[in-house]
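Could you help me review a protein record that somebody else here produced? What it holds is a sequence and that sequence's fold in token form. I need someone to confirm that the token line plausibly describes how this chain folds. Take the sequence as given and treat only the tokens as open to question. This is what I was given:
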Amino acid sequence: MIIDTPNKYEALVEEEEKGLRLDKFLSLKLDNVSRSRLKNLIIEGYVSKASADKQNLWVKIDDPSHRVKPGDVFSVKIPEIVDAKPEGEDIPLDIRYEDDHLIVLYKPAGMVVHPAAGNHTGTLVNALIHHCGDSLSGINGVKRPGIVHRIDKDTSGLMVAAKSDAAHNGLSRQFAKHSLERAYYAITWGVPNPASGTIDLPLRRDHKNRLKIAVREGGKEAITHYKVIKRLEPPRKITSRKNVLQGLPPSLSLVECRLETGRTHQVRVHLAQIGHPLVGDPLYSRRNNPQKNFSDAAKDAINKFDRQALHAYLIGFKHPVTKEPLTFKTELPNDMKQLINALEGV
């Protein structure tokens, strides 16, 4: 049973629908709304459940995996669709490879991948639309044409985008199967011990802070393989055992992280969870002044580094059309090189 009014729907859970995920249940009831959009509407607070004892009292449900029960009544409010089609902008692109089906490029730190609240222009999508023209039309929807994955605004590095439906479908399958090769360089507080290993911790959005991702039971599988590449020893004003006893990190590290899965903020959360958050990370680094006795030069370099020290240096995949194996690498950006030099006293 479903009751609908303009932009608002109410759905009753029947006995045979017992135990379904909320997003799955609603997608069966609202066949004109995709499951992915319903999932987003749930997360954004547009879905409520009627109180068991008071039908006029509604409680918001923001978990798409919520299991429904017979007799539950859910209300879905569909916000007005606003034409948010991004426009092309003449923004220079650092292209590393391009053919008729795909484009591999370098995204600098500070650039947002696709338009969203507060960032409607100046994004990678705006630049791709200008560069590729009509070839992006219809690929992965209006707001994210050509985008098959993304990296955070303040993370630098390599990305691949689709220019044809065949490429989009093929790349999406590889991402879903976790068959691509992706690796990052990160600069962390402290030195992970052991020096190499695997972090296998499920991730889901933090229910207290929607901007953050948290390690939570029942979250999506997330696996990161890490290896310490270099131990960074910042010059200190005072070099003594006392520094360590005061809780100051004995050093920092350059760490390689290879992704088996690709969840939002995965590297940042996983490294923070094992006690080694990224330098400059505003969300997951809890250390307010860990460089108390570092040299002035090292301290200055750390304080001036205004983003998370994370760089997507490698991406490898099978070309979705030609089936040719492709691998691309890029060196560390200048800001991370300069930070490493300062931390090594160069």
